[in-house]
């Protein structure tokens, strides 16, 4: 392995979140600024907003029902011609 190519690793680097939370992590920089952490992330706090997708499934089922009602075109049967 080559020497002196790896950055210095800080075992106790401080991470500062925009919400004011501070925690210790391992990193290659002594201080890290983050926008969102486990204390303010909507998924982890339970404040996640569910996107209302009602109607999409019903529309899909309606399209499938409509497509099954329409009679399918019959395929043309090809007749082989005899070569003389």
From TrEMBL:
One GO cellular component term noted in the UniProt record for this chain: ribonucleoprotein complex
Biased composition (Basic and acidic residues): 63-72
Listed InterPro entries: Ribosomal_bL28/bL31-like_sf, Ribosomal_bL31, Ribosomal_bL31_A, Ribosomal_bL31_sf
Sequence segments annotated as region (Disordered): 63-84
Superkingdom, natural source: Bacteria
Required cofactor(s): Zn(2+)
Sites where the protein binds Zn(2+): 17, 19, 37, 40
Record has Metal-binding as a keyword: yes
Stretches with biased composition (Basic residues): 73-84
Molecular function in Gene Ontology: metal ion binding; rRNA binding; structural constituent of ribosome
GO BP annotations listed: translation
Signal peptide per UniProt: none
Cofactor binding summary note: Binds 1 zinc ion per subunit.
Keywords tagged on the record: Metal-binding, Ribonucleoprotein, Ribosomal protein, RNA-binding, rRNA-binding, Zinc
Oligomer status and interactors: Part of the 50S ribosomal subunit.
Physiological role: Binds the 23S rRNA.
NCBIfam families: L31, PRK00019.1
Family, as annotated: Belongs to the bacterial ribosomal protein bL31 family. Type A subfamily.
Protein name: Large ribosomal subunit protein bL31
Organism: Candidatus Harrisonbacteria bacterium RIFCSPLOWO2_02_FULL_41_13b
Gene designation: rpmE
């Amino acid at each position: 392995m080559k020497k002196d190519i790896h950055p210095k690793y800080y075992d106790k680097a401080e991470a500062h979140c925009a919400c004011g939370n501070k925690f210790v992590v391992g990193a290659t920089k002594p201080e890290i600024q983050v926008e969102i952490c486990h204390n303010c992330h909507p998924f982890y706090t339970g404040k996640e907003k569910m996107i209302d997708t009602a109607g999409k499934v019903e529309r899909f089922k309606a399209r499938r029902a409509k497509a099954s009602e329409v009679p399918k075109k019959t395929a043309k049967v090809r007749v082989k011609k005899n070569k003389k």
